[in-house]
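Thread: "does anyone have the structure for this chain?"

Original post by V.I.:
We have the sequence but no experimental structure in hand. Need at least a predicted one for the grant figures.
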Amino acid sequence: MRSALVMAVGGRREIDDARIRLGHELADCLWSVLVLADCYDIDLAAEFTRMTDELDAKLSVAVGN
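Reply from O.Q.:
Generated one for you, tokens below.
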């Protein structure tokens, strides 16, 4: 992803249509992830749930909940 677009959307640089261009770049990244998951038979929904559950558990320990 182009960091210049992220900076432009955040107001640190001037790039025409930065938000639209960043949206396109993010969609391109997502497409690549979906294609790789399909190629390697990865259940992204299950992996996302597992990853966020692990993150929630780590955060709970970090804040003492």
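V.I.: this helps a lot. The chain is about 75% helix and 0% strand.
O.Q.: and The radius of gyration is 17 Å.
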